[in-house]
Amino acid sequence: MTKCINKKWLVVLMTVVCCFMVTVNGAAQQTVVINNAQPRTDVKGKIVDAHDGRIIQFGKMFYWYGTKYGATNGFTTANEYVCYSSSDLIKWNYEGPLLKDKPGGVYYRPHVVYNARTKKYVLWYNWYPKLWNGQFGVAISDLPTGPFTIINDHVTVKQNALGVGDLGVFTDDDGKAYLSYNTISNHKVSVELLNEDYTASTLQGSDFIAEHCEAGSMFKRNGLYYLLTDYTCCFCTQGSGAQVFTAKNPLGPYTWRQNINRYPGELSAVINDGFANDNLFETLDPKQQQGIEIWLNKSAPVSSITIQQFTGNRSGQCGEVDNPVLHQPIIQHQFKISSLQNGEWKELKLQPAAVTHSSMQTTYALKFSAVVTDRIRIQPLYNDSVQPIFVSEVSVSGGQKNLRMFKTGKQPGKPVIPAQQTFVMPVQTNNGTQYIWMGDLWGSATDGIKGHDYQFWSKPFEFYSNGLIKPLEWIHQYRLTIKK
């Protein structure tokens, strides 16, 4: 009897910890734990096999639309659209396949929206009768779970001549809907207005917004339209970034703002290791306009930067007895220092640099008015110089340790989250709509089955006061409060 009671109370306790409901000011809300460290499963314990689609809320239910890959490599005609439903984003019910009588081909990127005028659920999808002859299809249903009946499997869009690939569908507050997609040729990204039924394009579209990108997703916040996309990934295990474009109109013009899922460059292990004279340094290449970005552990006042340039590695000539120059001259450099303020980089006004020389070092002490920040960027002013700069040590005022320092340049760094973007999921809360970034972690399944690859769901976006999105960060699990 005691064991039964203990087990009963253990179940109750686990339920309270993992998923609980409260009422605030008469509005019901539920707090759940989102876990990125484990595969998501349905109510029968099976791993959810739904990728590169979306999760969208209709009424009080969430519907997860995705492509089922099973044990294939993802490039086969076995791909199938499926749907799961849940009231809390945790307990998922398998609702079955979506499309009726689909023609043979390879299928990707299912996106379902609801049309209040026709009272139909509309499925847009990307399919290939033969790889890579990309086409868009449209199907409709009376129910969010389907089955969906195809009404057009070769939709005409503005960029048909370039082939069509990944897509997203966004519905605005005024009931209008927009298709964001990329072409197959050069993966050019644009946005088009759909008709009133959401079943065809009006062929009214934006200019090209980006190139060599895919998996775009749109949302709107405070009157500003956001489009997130990044470089072609194609089931890549390294993942893609998340470039953010914004516009005041859904058809643009769009402005590039930031990339919230890229490290600024290659992480350096030597320029903050406490050793300045050990012949270990980072080489900053002027051809690549390389510099240094510093990530502090937390926002703090910063008023000075010290840069130590290693000068014991200057190439020279040998055997040219008439050449009076034995080694390259030591060049004294100048630097631009910027700090991240409200999501944007602001150049700091420097005091005259104090420069000192020793046997193997030139040390630059750069001072400026104190600024509170968690990111500092150092950019050498190369001008016409073609000589690389050897940086052995960089330190920041304030005494923070274990700083992360990156060598930046023209080449983008690795994604913070090694996932390919699939959707930005709106979630209704008692504090308004919040937005969760979803990405497929290709190659993450321990059993090697593609359909079992994990998905990463970020914490809700945090925004700076100017509308920029704070960068993504990896988190194993977090609590999310949703409106019921």
Please tell me about this protein's structure.
With 484 residues, the protein is mainly beta. It has two domains: 15-262 and 414-483, Tachylectin-2, Chain A; 265-311 and 333-408, Jelly Rolls. 4% of the residues lie in helices and 48% in strands. It contains one helix and 31 strands. The strands form seven sheets. Strands 19, 20, 21, 22, 23, 24, 25, 26 and 27 form a nine-stranded antiparallel β-sheet that branches. It has a four-stranded antiparallel β-sheet with strand order 3-4-5-6, with no helix packed on it. The longest helix has 17 residues, at 2-18. The protein is elongated. It starts with a helix and ends with a strand. Mean pLDDT is 92; it is low at 1-19.
Tell me, briefly, the overall form: elongated
The CATH superfamily name of the largest domain is Glycosyl hydrolase domain, family 43
* DSSP helical segment count: 1
Task: Estimate nothing, just give the exact number of structural domains.
Answer: 2
Helix content: under 10%
* Helix-strand makeup class: mainly beta
CATH architect. name of the largest domain: 5 Propeller
Q: Please write the CATH class name of the largest domain.
A: Mainly Beta
Stretches with pLDDT under 50, minimum 5 residues: 1-19
Overall average residue pLDDT: 92
CATH fold naming of the largest domain: Tachylectin-2, Chain A
Rg estimate, integer Å: 27 Å
Distance between the termini: 37 Å
For the biggest sheet, the summary is: 9 strands, antiparallel
The strand count comes to 31
What's the SSE blueprint?
Blueprint: H1 2-18, E1 19-24, E2 27-35, E3 51-58, E4 61-68, E5 80-86, E6 93-97, E7 106-115, E8 120-128, E9 135-141, E10 149-152, E11 164-171, E12 177-183, E13 189-194, E14 201-205, E15 213-221, E16 224-231, E17 243-247, E18 255-259, E19 265-268, E20 282-284, E21 291-310, E22 335-341, E23 344-347, E24 354-357, E25 361-380, E26 389-396, E27 404-408, E28 420-429, E29 432-440, E30 455-457, E31 477-483
Antiparallel strand pairs: 1-2, 2-31, 3-4, 4-5, 5-6, 7-8, 8-9, 9-10, 11-12, 12-13, 13-14, 15-16, 16-17, 17-18, 19-27, 20-26, 21-25, 21-26, 21-27, 22-23, 22-25, 24-25, 28-29, 29-30
